Amino acid sequence: MDSSLSELVDRIRSTYFAFDPASDADLNAAAERGVPETLLAFYRFADGAFLGSGDGFADPAGSRYRLMFPRLADLQTTQQYGYVFDDAPYYANTGNWWQIIDYCDANWLALDATPDGSGRILDVFHETVGYDDEHDVVAINLTELLQRVLDRGDLYWFDDDFQAHSRI
Q1: What is the pLDDT of residues 67-126, one digit of tens each?
Q2: Which H or E run contains 3?
Q3: InterPro entries of this UniProt entry (predicted)?
Q4: 69: which of 37, 49, 88, 105 fits an S-S bond (Cβ 3.0–4.6 Å)?
Q5: Quick check: 43 and 27 in contact, CB under 8 A?
Q6: Three state DSSP letters for 95-122
Q7: Which residues contact 51 (CB under 8 A, 6 or more apart)?
Q8: In CATH terms, is domain 5-58+65-167 a member of 3.40.50.1360?
Q9: Cα–Cα distance between 59 and 15 in angstroms, integer?
């Protein structure tokens, strides 16, 4: 059964850690800088989160997690983050690939907010970002991503039997 975004954030909050919702001022500022509505919807429920067991990130109480959904003020596109080369075939697109899940070592999942991307979630390795045939589509949207991470509790896209929706 598919869960709503609010239900998924409630699950994150009860199992892992989610910050309080982003303020109206932060949401308005993010909208002005082009953050897509799909992401603003998440931030209306939580201004960032930590998920999965691991040592990569700590919440304010010191509990450790593998995955970090950044605070809204820290949210960047892949292009803004700086690892993409300007000669990469998808360089222009990376200005609309919003880095939503940090899983350490400068590797991210990004929400593709390009018209062709329709909110799909891409696996973005810093060594190959923006190059052709390097990005697995690990979820068709943010809701599927959160559902699968919560059901699995980890980086399901690293499983040996994982099948990407597609690859770009």
Answers
A1: 999 999 999 999 999 889 999 999 999 999 999 999 987 789 999 999 999 999 999 988
A2: none
A3: Knr4/Smi1-like_sf
A4: 49
A5: yes
A6: HHEEEEEECCCCCEEEEECCCCCCCCEE
A7: 12, 16, 65, 66, 67, 68, 69, 149, 150
A8: no
A9: 13
